[in-house]
Amino acid sequence: MKAIRRFTVRTVLPESIAPLSRLARNLRWSWHRPTEQLFADLNPQAWETVHGDPVKLLGSLTREEIQQIAEDPATVRRIEELDADLECYLTDELWYQKTQTEDAPRAIAYFSAEYGVTSVLPQYSGGLGILAGDHLKSASDLGVPVVGVGLFYQHGYFKQSLSRDAWQQESYPVLDPDGMPLALLREKDGTPARITLPLPNGRSLSAQIWRADVGRVPLLLLDSDIPDNDDHARSVTDRLYGGGGDHRLQQELLLGMGGIRALRTFSRLTGAPAPEVFHCNEGHAGFLGIERIAELMDPADGSEPLTWDEALASVRSATVFTTHTPVPAGIDRFERAQIEHFFNAGLAPAVPTANVLSLGAEDYDDGDPSKFNMAVMGLRLAQRANGVAKLHGVVSRGMFRGLWPGFDEDEVPIGSITNGVHVMTWIDPRMAELALDPMGSDLNRAARWRRIYGVDDAELWAVRRELRTRLVEDVRARLRASWKKRGLADAELGWTDSVLDPGVLTIGFARRVPTYKRLTLMLRDPQRLKKILLDPERPVQLVVAGKSHPADEQGKRLIQDLVRFTDDPEVRHRIVFLPNYDIAMARTLFPGCDVWLNNPLRPLEACGTSGMKAALNGGLNLSVLDGWWDEMYDGQNGWAIPTADEGAHPDERDDIEAAALYELIENHVAPRFYGETGDASEPGTDVVPHQWLAMVRHTLATLGPRVSAKRMLEDYVRDLYVPAAVSGRRAAEDGHAAARAKSRWIGRVRQAWGQVSVEHVDTEGVAQDPQIGDELSVCAYVTLGSLAPEDVCAEIGYGRVSETDHIHERKYATLRPTGDLGGGRHKFCGTITVDRSGPFGYTVRVLPAHPHLADKAELGLVANA
Ligand SMILES: *Cc1c(COP(=O)(O)O)cnc(C)c1O
């Protein structure tokens, strides 16, 4: 029988256990083990059936069961204690309150297209979403006043299974928000709050707003599946990155523009402070800047409207943009005509569509004039921008240098903050007990992790083995379930009970399957891989997982190749592919692996975070020097897979790098794991490998604090959020007086810049054979046209020169204006000291200068000598 109507009946809890409701709804339980354990203990069997979901658990209990819980004094006490603990967690003075001054923002809006907080709120596809989830959790732990904004996808991302012949199958279960840890944002009269965007042809797109509580951090998720909408509008939030074209564009309009409206509604209804900083996590949410410009150009409160340029100056000052992709193909782009079509429908009536188009225009060398580029818009709308690892910062500066012509690549104003992972989500509780000092504080994170140095080898090895054993058990259960789906009967699956061995060196490899991640690099020489797996003395076992984008046939073929290899009876006890990689699997997988493998095509991995999660559990990384590993590999915390020349043919590169990978496993990783004495023990017998454990201990103590997302949050607060709050406030003061002044100044400078040039440079003090320590005095004759010397900075750049006269390891010294020569000509002078031997060179350039510029390259204007 099929129901014609459905609704969710709320569980009414007796008063003595009423706090259970808050404990279930605030997602802090997902990283607070005592709370999670409470729910598990309420009814272990039901807990398993609902896959560890507290809201579903409470919904599944009968009235009798609830009554029983309410009458058990021990449980009631436990609930009270945990509720009191949550109350403290939500209200205590934390790191932010203790360390920050008045400059710090009162609220920060964080926009992301996906969030991976817990497996019970499956609103993520992969790394970007998990990172956003970890960002919110760490903000909560540190007391950073972040509000998250995203979309609620009715189907989330797909679930993966395999067909008999190893082809990826996708399914899209329907999620019922009423049965999830979400609450609808409501008007005072109880009706659901709504935001609405106009669409072309007189249509409109409305959304309701779900609120999730990630500890202290509210997360607002816009949901278009409501009766006010026509069918097309209802399906805008149907699935993550669905459709493409107009569907995707509408998702992004809703996220960015609708997201700002949702924030305003949230503040109006709850009294939450208005955000002072807006963080756009990847380009998808870029339209948030347009909505904020629209607010200033057509103010609802009757204040004086700003012009486009003024509003842009004001909005930029408080916006932070993070780019996550090192490949141009990974960037979101739309047809200009699409953008025109939607904005002409009145999305932001006060904002000229041409100006919106100009923000996303690829009006630089190699750009495509028919495209609207979301990352380019993101960079133009944000005064501060960053990549997600040091190397990714370098790659991003190269990728976007066209936006700052005239500047060297290393001067492109995109910095980097290396991603981190939320420790309490990803560390196994057993490892947390060993590795983390319980009395530690966020004010000295490194000290907390030094605890591991006091743990002896036998104890550490026992815990590592326990984690590996738990993974082996989980793998067996998952493999059996997968084979049943693939059509085998129980009678044919006896062998799955002995798949993997808790005493064997375990290597993990799990990630999405775009080509650059090279899922099948390990299969390059199948015979050699077999030999490694089946080595009688030093066997290796591999656990592999990963989803391919549904439209990516090539990715699915890679999965098929791999699964077919794992299906071979000769090796199937040593290598497995687990379908449906997700947070739940990851939390057993990372702790259980001795080694985490990552072999992307360098430098295409922006950061990568899975290796960090392995490291938190004492896993050693075996990885190409890409993303985070490029800056954190130190020779003792794992292994670096050497990379072939970037110029090499792809096949050749794969051959070289696969051979290097095999060599490392055979000659370094396995010998160290099994003890290097040569008299290798029987596999499965436990000889404690002291050298291996020294690496494990070193990894935990030194990487633990550095890969922590709290370190990442602190970097964001210090380098981006506080500076953005300061400049945003300054821009907005006195009716945006500073923004108006700055935009007038920018207009004047841009207009005059064509006349600015360095005419001539005089140098004194270079002797016949210059020596270190010599002073060089330099005067430049500069034409400024209608600009004044205060509008610019003249500087001398100097340092070692290459054969092509390029100046490396540059330093700068400012030249002071020393005379007005009339006719717009000025003299600037200064001195430098020759501070190195060998080829030395210098040059002079003039840049716009204004106290409200965050970077000297900000306007992209420069006059080089
Ligand atoms: C950490 C994680 C990712 C991202 O891993 P990368 O190393 O960045 O590719 C993807 N999916 C899940 C389930 C994760 O836990």
UniProtKB/TrEMBL annotation:
Question: What Pfam family is a match for this entry?
Answer: DUF3417
What cofactor does this protein call for?
pyridoxal 5'-phosphate
Q: Name one GO molecular function term.
A: pyridoxal phosphate binding
Please state the span of the N-terminal signal peptide per the UniProt entry. Answer: none
Q: Where is the DUF3417 domain positioned along the sequence?
A: 13-121
Q: What is its EC number?
A: 2.4.1.1
Where is the PTM N6-(pyridoxal phosphate)lysine found along the chain?
A: 613
Please tell me whether the keyword Ribosomal protein is annotated for this protein. no
Gene Ontology annotations of biological process type: carbohydrate metabolic process
Superkingdom, natural source? Bacteria
Looking up Gene3D superfamilies in the UniProt record yields: Glycogen Phosphorylase B
The record's catalysed reaction(s) read: [(1->4)-alpha-D-glucosyl](n) + phosphate = [(1->4)-alpha-D-glucosyl](n-1) + alpha-D-glucose 1-phosphate
Q: Which InterPro entries match?
A: Agluc_phsphrylas, Glyco_trans_35, Glycogen/Maltodextrin_Phosph, Glycogen_phosphorylase_DUF3417, Pyridoxal_P_attach_site
Ordered alphabetically, the record's keywords are: Allosteric enzyme, Carbohydrate metabolism, Glycosyltransferase, Pyridoxal phosphate, Transferase
Q: Does the keyword Glycosyltransferase apply?
A: yes
Tell me its family: Belongs to the glycogen phosphorylase family.
Q: Which PANTHER family match?
A: GLYCOGEN PHOSPHORYLASE
Its annotated function is as follows: Phosphorylase is an important allosteric enzyme in carbohydrate metabolism. Enzymes from different sources differ in their regulatory mechanisms and in their natural substrates. However, all known phosphorylases share catalytic and structural properties.
Q: Output this protein's name.
A: glycogen phosphorylase
Q: Can you name the source organism?
A: Kocuria sediminis
**Gene that this polypeptide is encoded by:** glgP
